[in-house]
Give the backbone structure.
Amino acid sequence: MKESETETTKPAAGASDRPTTAVTFAARIERAARGARVRAVLLDFLLVWYAVGGGLFWARWTFNGPAPPWERPESIGSSGHLVLAAVALVLALLWSRSRLSPGRMITWSTHPLLKADAPRPEGGWWRTVHGILVLAILAETVALGWKITEIDLVSLFSSEGLAGAGRIFGALFRPEFGILPLVLEKMIETIYIALVATVVAVPIAFLLSFFGAKNLMSGNRRSLAVYGAVRFSTNLMRSIEPVLWAIIFTVWVSFGPFAGMLALLVHSVASLVKLYSEQVESIDAGPVEAIEATGANRVQMVWYAVVPQIVLPYLGFTIYRWDINVRMATIIGLVGGGGVGELLMQYLGLAKYGEVGMIVVVITAVVWALDYASAKVREAIA
Amino acid sequence: MGFLKVEGLTKVYDNGVVALDNVSFTVERGEFLGVIGLSGSGKSTLLRCVNRLVEPSSGRVILDGIDVTALDVPSLRAERRRIGMVFQHFNLVKRKSVLVNVLTGSLARQGTIASVLGSFSAEDRAKAMQCLEIVGLADRARVRASELSGGQQQRVAIARSLMQGPDLLLADEPVASLDPATSHSVMDHLERANKELGQTILCNLHFLSLVRRYTTRVIALKGGELAFEGRPEEIDEDWFKRIYGEQAREVGIE
């Protein structure tokens, strides 16, 4: 069978009857399918690994019971994990031979070139053996969730438990007004930590956001690489929680508001770059085309065609970010990042719940007021 | 000779769609060339390949002896100054004033920093006002572009192109989102740019009545290939069916 014969008969090759175009297109489909098969095996592997491993752990918990918290929990060890992975890999390779395996269904139906070629079994995929297996894995997740989180309704509603809850709620609702001036001063510190972090983050994120927008950076390989680097590094920075950043910076610059501010700054830059870039990606491409067509350069194009479309959404995001930062600044205080959170942690350690109650009241009032104000401002500029 | 020569132009998009298939034609200086064909026949792609808003897959576009398809980025920018463009959806910067929108036509002549600061020379501002006067919108110069009607926005887009002062004007369905009366006013402005300023025009059009009224020559695309080339009055019933399909019936715009 000659290759060119089979390929020119493909209907997907487009309206052209010129063989060169048809062959290159078929070759691209072939190449896409090769990559997709590898990704499909990977997806199937993850699924099988999870299913078999989860089943194993569920059985262990069910027959041995959970390890008591004061004992070092047992692990199946690295050799156990290797065997588990090997078994899962063999099963996944076998499963992926079928065009209906979940990995192949996902990769084929989401790939732009292979979508048309994805199998559509009669009566729906969920009715096939493969679909039922996936449903079984979902059911396993529910069973595992119950086991892993050690759901225990008895202790939730026991009389001792309820009495403890009553003590703490009682104290919280009788706030110790004597410390109100101190709490307010610390609250101002928290608000400033959030404010400075936001104000410094905005110009940095503004500049980076254009480099993190795919529609502006897909021109050539080099700009795509810059786009990838910006998106990757900010995603990484964002996936590290602010509390973790705060711990890092308390080690770096020692405890206090500066560490908290830096932690919020890093996280704000990363989050704003994502929000800003996505805004740039969703702009109307028409003005970009029009300004480019006049022979303007990149900077002029961004300034005239992109910036006017994003200024208002940027403002909205920034105010929202400040709002989030005030909330986060209180949390960051808990690990030594300064502000009212630090105070909260001290009284919590002394079990002085009346004082804790006072702090919680102030935090709640400030957060509510900011939330309201930021919503109003965003409404006004939209 | 030929002012604009398109040779074997082919565009295959990444998804495999062949938008243009080996299209060749020549346009003389001062012509008003209509481009017709069904939606998806490659008209927009053709225009965008001329100023390389869309990068052609193969073939050449030669404007006044310069191979546009072979230019590097800085030279392409310089060459784009000579090629104006008007769009179906006007593509104005909606949040900026009408005057600033017209001034953007001169960006390629401005320094980067000056243009970012928005400091255009008094001459440029005066010229922009003149361009607005030509399209009859001088009194709306300070208004935000988004506040104008569709027809007015398209006239601002034409003023922007006048400000640019191109030799070649690409018009991509300039009246497709306008009502009949406004359509004629916009087409009249294009005609004046053609006759009085000597701009060569390539104009994608849907309505054959407009093609017959305004263009000096016409080409038709069908499935990305050149299906017809000739004078507008040569498109008879037979050709019409060949270009638009057997089922098509002509509707007019008066």
